[in-house]
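seq as requested:
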Amino acid sequence: MSSSFQDAVSKLRSPVKELVSVVTEKGQKYAGETESDQKEVVSWIEKSSETVTEGILKDLDAVLLPKTYVATNYFTAADVALYGALYPVVSKLQPVQYYSTPSIARYFDHIQSQEPIRTAVAPFEPVFGVVQFDFDNAPAIQRKAEPPKKKEKKAAATPAQEAPPVVSGPPAPAASETGTPAPPAQEKTQKKEKKEKKKDVANEEGGKKNKGGKAAPVAEDAGEPVPSMVDLRVGHIVDVIKHPDADGLYIEQIDLGEETGPRTVVSGLVHYIPIEEMRDKYLVAVCNLKPANMRGVKSFAMVLAATSKDGKEAGIELIQPPPGSKPGERVYFEGAEFETATPLSQLNPKKKIFETVQPGFTTLESREAAWVNPATKSVHRIRTKDGVCVAPTLAGASLS
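C-alpha cells:
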C-alpha cells in the first residue's frame, strides 16, 4: 500500500478506519489496480473522513447516479470508507427520506451486500448491521418534461402580401363573434373540412408518402427475427455474490466496457457453477434484453451459457470468448448477412425475437458456439475479431 493511501486511512474516524484496514489486509487490489485508480481511491477515502450530514446527501446522490462503485468500476477501499461514513446517517433514514435520495440508497444497499464488507463487519456487529430498505414501495421517479419551445411570431404581412379570401358569397359571422350558433350550412361545411383533414393525416401515418416525399419509416425489428438482432458482447465479472433472497441466484457486476460502469446481472447458476469459478471470469453477455426484476434486483443483461444435451444436471458452462478479449468487444455471427449487421438497441419482448432464434444456438462437436439456421441448416459460428467463442467441455449443448 502507498504512503498516501495509508495516510488517508489513518485520518478516518473509528470504527471506519478499522473496517477499511480489515478489508485492505485481504488484497492489494482494494487500494486500486492502476496508478490513476489509486489516486481516485485515496481522494474518496479523504472525502469520507469528513462528517456526512443529511445536508450533503442531495449532492452525493447526484454524484452516485451513474456509478456502481464510487472511485473506479470495481469494488475498492473507497467504497468501504464511504459505506462506513454514510452508515450513521443512512441507517437512521425513514423510507420517505431515502426515497428522495434513491442513488444513495441503491449504492449503500449494494455495497453492504459485498462479501468483503459482510466478512469484515462481523467483529463490529452491531455497529454495522444490515440496513433494510423498502424498495418495493418506492414511488416512481418523476421526470420533468422539457418546457414547450416558444414559437417565433411571424412578421405581419403587408397589405400587398395578403391574399384576398376566396369565397363564393358573403361569409357568415362566426358563433364566437355573434354569440349565436353558426348557420346549418356553414356548420356542415366545417364538419366536412375537419373530416377530410383527419383522413389526410391518417393516410400519411398509414404509410403513404409524406410532404418530404419519403415513405413512413420501417421499424428496425421489422421482418423475420435473425440472430444478428441480438447484441452480444464480451463481459468480465468484476464482482459476484449470492442473491440474499434467492438460493439459486448470483448477482454479478459485469464490465461491458461502458462508461457508466459495470452492469448488474442476475443469473440462476448457483447450483451449477461454484462462485469461485464465476469470479474474474470472461464471458459472452446478451446486452439488449429488456431489464427484468429478479427477486427484487433488476438485471440488465444475461450471460450466455451452454447446457449439456443431457440436461442441466449434466452440466452448465459459461461460453468463453477468445483469450485476450477485452470487455465490450463485439461478438457476432459468421456469414455475410450477419457480420456487418447492427444489433437492435433493445429487443421487444412482445416480438419474442430472442425466443425465436435461441433454439438454433448450440455448440458444435468442436465445442465452438454457433447458430444453426433451422431452415437451411447453415452454420454460423459465434466469434469476435480474434477468434470463435467456445464452451470449455460441452459439445452439442444448447445456449441460453
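The chain has 13 helices and 15 strands.
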